[in-house]
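**User:** Hello, beginner here. Are you able to go through the protein record under this note? It all follows right here:
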Amino acid sequence: MPELMKDKYYNYHSIHELALRIKAVYHSFQDSDFVNDIMDETWDVLELKGRMRQIAINLGRYLPTDYESALGIIDQVVAGYPEGFHDNALIYFPDFVEVYGRDECHWNLSIAALERYTQYSTAEFAVRSFIIDQEERMMAQMYVWAKHKNEHVRRLASEGCRPALPWGQALTRFKKDPSPILGILEQLKADPSLYVRKSVANNLNDISKTHPDLVVKTAMDWYGKNEYTDWIVKHGCRTLLKKGNRDVLGIFGIADAGSVDVYDFTLGAASVPIGKDMIFSFKIRVKKATKVRLEYGVYYVKANGGQNRKVFQISEASFMANQEKIYIKTHSFADLSTRKHYPGTHSLALIVNGTEQGKLDFEVL
């Protein structure tokens, strides 16, 4: 069984190392008590973010009660890592700032600390409480960060304000009105760092789930001017593409499905056991020169007996008139951490340029 991320990041060795690093710069630090209080009777059942928070809380207990002094010690610890070091396990440092530094009297200290610590880990979760507390002030700061020379700080400007950041505190006001985010993304739409561009694209994808028309308009405004921006637009519109949004398909020159014929669509078997693969095949014939986007959707049976469609991309390519091609694909029904399979009648549908073109049922055993 693969090692859980919470055990990989946060274990006795990593916490003991943290304690020794702190003691090296803060000699009165009670390192043994610090480790013992973190790894108490609740430790084993805590998930990743729970362990992160437990470490942050105990940093507050064992570092000086004066917030500025505590930050000074953390700064010395961080300075002990080699140049260019970046490890998301150190996220407990930004979390310390979130837990202990949100008072108005600490604002400037905390914002400067988040800017420093995100360069060694990420402050994408910690910054969200500051946005909720003082949205206008914090978004002005994010706008400044979007121009920072360090890619980790620029990424924070985008990642920190995603409306639905996985594992992050939801920014419900941005779900209702994401317009404050767009000024940040505008600054980053041609960023030279792929790390930053991925965040911008993911932010757009978040917004597309609640405000698709806004993302379509943004995509139309941005596309075709810069290769970096084009990549962001394509990746940021992935949910809309999977939903077959005609406006988005049109941006990328993907024609109507009527120009493509699908035939000989077959499944390799009438059933598949959980943990095994289903093979399927089909042929296409393109009537006129066009770009063709091929996907397939699996209608999974849910725990309550209903169905939920999940879309998977096959290819996207330009075809000449009258060109034909055969496809043979394999889909796994092995359980994953993100997907559990249930027995019952499933369906597999072919999707051509956003439109379903054939659907076959089969049993998962």
Residues 240 and 248 are 7 Å apart (CA to CA).
